[in-house]
Write a structure and sequence with these properties.
binds magnesium ion; rod-shaped; alpha+beta; binds adenosine-5'-triphosphate; 5-stranded antiparallel beta sheet; Heat Shock Protein 90; Helix Hairpins; 5-stranded mixed beta sheet; 12 helices; Beta-Lactamase
Length: 487
């Protein structure tokens, strides 16, 4: 409990206040003492001179005892706190009005300071009744034939004074002063402790939040301020915690989904590789075992099927490698400025034989023949190959495929449009997923692997672009994407 920030702050503050309070009280006490001593000495500084008057206290080196007694009597009557001593020129006490004197001499240093008038009040001198105590005093030199033969030394804070002083010490005003100081310090402590409580309460709430951190619900519990509402450091701390927690959650979710995708990929890959591999093995085994029973035409057919499956395996593996590379996050784009028209014409040429076989018209429409773009040429070529390959595959004979190029101020729009069988509305959101094959159409033996559009999507994402599709069943499909013009 004493380890909490709140307890430590409060204890430190309390200790500070106690220290401060005692210091203030001590200083007040000391200065009031000094003050009263100074007042006493200023008021009564001349008392020794007045009482001495015209009396000759020392005559030819002898004390005039009668005169001294009379004078002491008089002084005591004027001011009962005064104690009178007669000392010689060396400070030895010759006679005193009091019986309980324990010291027989006084120091003349303060006496001379007093008489010189150069030292500030209060000046403390010896008290013959209390050798360890120093008291304010009044003194007057005794002269005989113009020569100092002794001093009349009057201690101003005598026994009576002390008893008076202790009565005043306990007086109303001093008590009030002490009570005021202690009271205001206590109020300050209470106020500070309350403030600490509210400040540390927010810190405790935050630390409770951090303790209860749960990846599925990173910001549960009492509401914490948002960065926009933050007023002080604690608010900012809370806000950064929420931000951090949210980010951790996002990354965790992303990692989870990445993990799921990986697992799915491995499952799909092994399944996909197994099917063509198994049928290839089947045909080859049949050829080996039943070699003599098969007609040459059958053998040819089996071989062709096995070959087709090996091609499919090859294509599948190549595409998987390509996608894995694009997905690795370490893929570096080789961005350069190139002529889009040249690339499009090259790609069209690749498919000329295939399109001629199906009697499909493959054409390019461009407003600007000198269109340059900024991108990775090899990857954009893959995009065009995949889109043209799909278009050719899903467009019946005697129809047409058109590549349109439209350039604006910042971008170039590339459209691959066919008049083929189209894609059903409910399938459109899925065609960019890996291993998604449309169930439209009637082709039972499919050569594709379902990775082509996933690769296209990934390549365009790496270019900070995206692929769009518009399609109508039995009317045709348009795939489009944008590439930036050179800066
Ligand atoms: N131009 C198109 N017209 C109609 N359907 C299309 C068109 N392009 C793609 N599709 C549909 O989208 C699906 C996914 O295409 P994708 O290119 O990703 O895979 P694939 O062509 O089947 O295999 P791969 O390209 O890996 O050899 C296809 O199976 C097809 O149903
Ligand atoms: Mg394809």
């Amino acid at each position: 409990m004493f380890n909490s920030l709140y307890a430590r702050l409060s204890i430190t503050l309390l200790a500070l206040v106690i220290l401060l309070g005692t210091t203030v009280l001590w200083i007040a006490h000391e200065t009031s003492e000094q003050y009263s001593q100074e007042v006493t000495q200023r008021l009564n500084g001349d008392i020794a001179m007045y009482v001495t008057g015209e009396q000759q206290l020392i005559e030819d080196g002898h004390v005039n005892q009668a005169a001294v007694d009379k004078l002491a009597q008089r002084a005591m009557t004027i001011n009962p706190t005064v104690e009178i001593y007669l000392v010689d020129a060396q400070g030895r006490i010759l006679t005193s009005s009091l019986s309980d004197v324990v010291h027989n001499r006084i120091s003349l240093v303060p006496v001379k300071q007093f008489l010189s008038g150069e030292v500030a009040y209060p000046i403390y001198g010896d008290d013959p009744r209390h050798p360890t105590n120093q008291k304010v005093f009044s003194v007057s030199p005794i002269l005989e034939h113009e020569k100092v033969v002794g001093y009349l030394y009057a201690v101003l804070g005598g026994k009576k004074f002390e008893s008076l002083q202790s009565a005043v010490d306990a007086s109303y005003i001093l008590q009030m002063g002490a009570i005021t100081i202690i009271g205001s310090l206590l109020v300050a402590v209470l106020a500070a402790i309350t403030i600490f409580f509210f400040l540390t309460r927010r810190l405790s709430a935050l630390s409770a939040h951090m303790n209860n951190f749960d990846i599925s619900d990173p910001v549960k519990g009492p509401e914490l301020p948002t960065p926009a509402k933050a007023k002080d450091e604690i608010d900012y701390l809370s806000a950064s915690f929420i931000e951090m927690a949210t980010k951790i959650k996002q990354q965790f979710v992303a990692l989870q989904s990445l993990d799921a995708t990986r697992r799915e990929l491995i499952a799909n890959v092994s399944h996909d590789l197994r099917t063509p591999l198994a049928s290839m093995q089947g045909y080859i085994e049949t050829l080996m075992i039943k070699d003599s029973e098969l007609s040459p035409a059958r053998k040819q057919q089996y071989l062709a099927t096995a070959h087709k499956h090996s091609l499919r395996l090859n294509a599948l593996i190549a595409e998987l490698f390509e996608l894995a590379k694009l997905d690795s996050g370490t893929m570096e784009l080789n961005i350069e400025t190139f002529s889009l028209m040249e690339l499009v014409h090259d790609s069209v040429q690749e498919f000329e034989l295939l399109s001629a076989q199906k009697n499909i018209k493959l054409s390019v429409e461009a407003a600007n023949e000198n269109c340059y773009v900024c991108a990775d040429i090899a990857l954009i070529q893959r995009v065009l190959q995949n889109l043209l390959g799909n278009a050719l595959e899903h467009t019946p004979a005697d129809q047409s495929i058109t590549i349109r190029i439209k350039d604006s101020a910042e971008n170039v729009l590339i459209e691959v449009s066919d008049t083929g069988r189209g894609i059903a509305k409910h399938e459109i959101p899925h065609i960019f997923e890996r291993y998604y094959f449309s169930h439209q159409g009637h082709h039972t033996e499919k050569l594709g692997s379902g990775l082509g559009l996933a690769i296209v999507k990934r390549i365009l994402e790496l270019h900070k672009s995206s692929i769009a599709v518009r399609s109508e069943l039995n009317r045709g499909t348009i795939f489009s994407f944008e590439l930036p013009l050179p800066a």
